[in-house]
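quick one before i forget lol
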Amino acid sequence: MKNISLRFLWIAFMLLCQHSFSQKFFDPSVKKVLFIGNSITYSGEYIQLFETIYRLQNPESKVEFYNCSLPSETVSGLSEEGHANGRFPRPVLFERLDRVLKMIHPDVVIATYGINDGIYQPFSEERFLKFQEGIQKLHQQVEAMGAKIIHLTPSVYEEKKKEATFNYAEVMDRYAQWLIAQKNGR
């Protein structure tokens, strides 16, 4: 079942990208696109797919794509007890964001956060507020340096039924709904 749902998501993503790229996805002035996020973004699979479809639809484009993601990273600054078997807490984007922005000088930043910000715990208003504050800080810092930012919702989370004592996917749904509401309200 997992492979079928992943294949469906990839196909849906590709169709969405093809539709989006039939219009001009980026303004012609865009030269550099920076991806930041957690391990899913770090792995580069969807970035590679995104770039491939973009280049097929825009062969004349000279846009450069950069992946500066970091596994386990959060915008909330939170980390659960014993993360990485107690070796280190989750990294926080803001410890490095200024350096990355100054080094790359992106025109567009595509950010994917949330899955680690809930630290795999039941929903908590306190954690949710930290996530919201982190997203707003990220948004402000990127815009302050003159770039546009696109926030992607947290990735799909598939519960391991034998181990689950709560539904983390529902926690991520709340994070995603808030992000979407911000887009519609901005």
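fyi The first helix runs from residue 2 to 22.
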